Amino acid sequence: MADWAGLPRELILSLAERMGSLEEFIVFGAVCKSWRSVATKENYFTCELGPKHQVPLLILPQEKGAATRKCYNLKKRKICQLNLSELEDKLFLSSLGWLLTVSKKDLKFCLIHPLNHARIELPRPVPNMAPSLLSNFSIRKFVLSTSPSWTSNFIVMVYQSQTVSFCRPGHSEHWISVCLHTPGILNDLTYYEGQLYAVNYYGHVFICDIEDPKQAEVRIVAPQFPKEYLGPMMQIKVAYLVESAGDLLVVLCFFNPKTKFHATTGCRVFKVPFSDGSSWLDSEVKNLGNRSLFLCRNASSFSVEASDCSGWKPNCIYFMNNKRASLRVDMDMGIFNMDDGQIERPFDNSFNICYKGRNYETSHLWIEPSF
């Protein structure tokens, strides 16, 4: 019988470098102790392992109570199965590669890594949250200040009904709630360079200072998006915040109210916060270079570098603009090409047709590649 554990370390590292995705890299490390000693975070981000393995996963809607989840791998262009029994009978959202799960029975909150199944218990309950209100409509966003994979000093934030609740696992046993007095309902939040940013449906961008919950301050760093820039019959469908190559970007997705199901018809990208004297037009980003943006209503958006063999296109926006699967409405997902302004909807019909006769929890969910 072959002694796989006794292979030279250099050979094991060479084998690890041949793994085609992050999930394969993690499975590789589960073979035995000597292979696990090679499949580390440090090796993942050295010898150009990291960029090659950063393949976004798309979790597909699943029937209630299912222990496994179907996921689409962009690089392999095929659907795979992930054992995610931790999600059974729970609501979940994503940020920085981690899942926030919420039990509908007892409102228990937990962080789960979908690939290595690391688990972090969170305080409970979130203030002002009742089981009757628990849905992916009441919890609009989940944000991590930094990845728990790299540090124990991180903040977990959830947004619901103009209120941000946050906790510091391991440092506090309670959630703290802060009411954000902003115009309109917020579409998205993100943590960027030590500050919490938010954007609403109108395009206002805010910095939210929540250090003192009793005196939370909201400062506008980009005004409302001018209606005259929308174009005839165009409206903002959803606004996203995403960090890309060190910059904070706002992505506005547009639709025509006369189109069927209000499907997305275009996207525009802007760099924020605005510098002194600049405007929306001055801050517009026309080219993302070799990076792609992945936008999702139920997850923190992210950007990933593309290459010839990555499986996704550079200078494109992969959007998923439904919050949950509908029995009546087709999925509004596709790829917006920044070069020509065209939208492709290349995914198989099972990705974007109505899920008739089935009972689904949430819509599709982009998962950021994260160790």
Care to describe what's here?
With 371 residues, this protein is mainly beta. It folds into two domains: 1-53, no CATH class; 54-367, Neuraminidase (6 Propeller). The chain has six helices and 25 strands. The protein has helices at 9-16, 22-29, 33-36, 41-44, 49-53, 349-352; strands at 57-59, 68-73, 78-83, 90-95, 98-103, 109-112, 119-121, 141-144, 156-160, 163-167, 176-179, 186-192, 195-200, 205-209, 217-222, 235-244, 247-255, 264-272, 284-285, 291-296, 302-305, 316-320, 333-337, 343-344, 365-367. Strands 21-20-22-23-24 form a five-stranded mixed β-sheet, with no helix packed on it. The protein has a four-stranded antiparallel β-sheet with strand order 3-2-1-25, with no helix packed on it. The longest helix has 8 residues, at 9-16. It is globular, with a radius of gyration of 21 Å.
